[in-house]
Amino acid sequence: MPGSALLSVSDKTGIEAFARALQKNGFTIIATGGTRKVLEADGIRTTSVEEITEFPECFSGRVKTLHPKILGGILCDRTNKEHLQEAKRLGITPIDLICVNLYPFESIATKKESTYEELIEQIDIGGVTLLRSAAKNHAHVTVIYDPADYERVLTEVKKHGNTTETLRKELATKAFLRTTAYDACITEILSEGQNRGILLTNGKELRYGENPHQWGKFYEHWGKADEGWAVLQGKPLSYLNLLDADAAWSLVQEFEEPTAACIKHANPSGVASNHKITEAFQRCYDADKLSAFGVIVALNRPCTEDIIEKIIEQKIFVEVIVAPEYEKEALELLQKKPNIRAITMCSAPSCHSEDVPSVGQGYPCPTEGTFRRIHKELMRLTYRSCLGGMLVQNEDTKTVMQNDLQCVTEKKPTEGQITDLLFSWKVAKHAKSNAIVFAKDRATLGIGCGQTSRVDAVHLAARKSGEKSRGAVMASDAFFPFPDSIDEACTHGISAIIQPGGSIRDEEVIARANVCNIAMVFTGVRAFRH
Question: What is the pTM for the complete model shown?
């Protein structure tokens, strides 16, 4: 049967209604200072913590619930006779429900004006102790920190007189996740990023891993308000489907203008920009139809009915479509291809920007989750297991602009060539090294990637582009170690080249470009992706 409930919340959302309902169902309400004031003002009778402990709140509120009469009431094992006898002897009354929010350390950390001393004061001690104590004793105690769980708890209390063991265990797990993430955030900030905690939650089974004989799971980073993506239709996703979808989405987010990309094995096979997203899709597919078999398609604008019609009419084998939004008619047409996975995304500015046309009754992307600063930074990191440990780096968000380019050849690139050079550079950033991209009119013609020598990557890009390479531009994700790649580019009619520079043979490479009458610009930035 219900006994007492301790309420101590910094987030007062819904606390009055929750407390009133608990009281109506037989709970005695114990509350700390700020929470008690709110409840009493709403006419809800409460018992103060000081009345229980017979000890005043002290040290500016740093100590109020850390007392044996509180912690003992939470941790007492109701099935242990010795515990019950000891509780009676010490005058400790069991506490059956704990509702506690933690001090908002994360949100204070996002404010630039916050001082170090203010941050320290926002490190919750009592709240974490209460949550962990109640979670440990979840066989008897219900623990809540999230207002979203109030209704679930009340439903069971009204139905059974108390919560079920199943719900108490679930809420206890959630509480431990909360305190773990909270401590990880504090640790990262106090160590100035030298120590990081990675907390993965909600593991979801995938069809299989990298190969069918391997299992695979997808985990969320703790702290995300929502996944930021949703599957609208299609077969269950595999490990590689998600890996490729991530690569595809990351690529199209490089571009402000409507852009489409076809991805195979985490590498682009075709990319194109156009003022119409449907035309961009067609051009990116045309860039390398042979490779675009079992392809991932990414769009940085809403997916149109015309795009789905093209996929069906041209019998394009598409595994996944990733887009910020879908026209209603596009989704209806997609039902004819039930095996295609349609993913809607909402994690990039283009998903919300004013230049994205409305699609009326289409499927909107889910509301963008609120990320605390610490978790925003976490999501911009890449992780790889290595030698029994973990390699971590920040994401390559470096954008090369026209003003960053240094022309090193006698021939200067035209404005049109500069546009294509910058376009091809963005694509090269998302192709595995060594990577070479041939492009013209903001569309790729041939991409050579994942090669052990740079000249081989040029050979591959040239073979894919064929005669279309005449007058095209070329991007290289790293410097040219020898002039041989320039010779190969010259053979295939390349008119301008963009590369980082920095080779000990730069002068030889520049001299060969001058002989070939090719314009060349340096970015000063390498774009390796292994």
Answer: 0.77
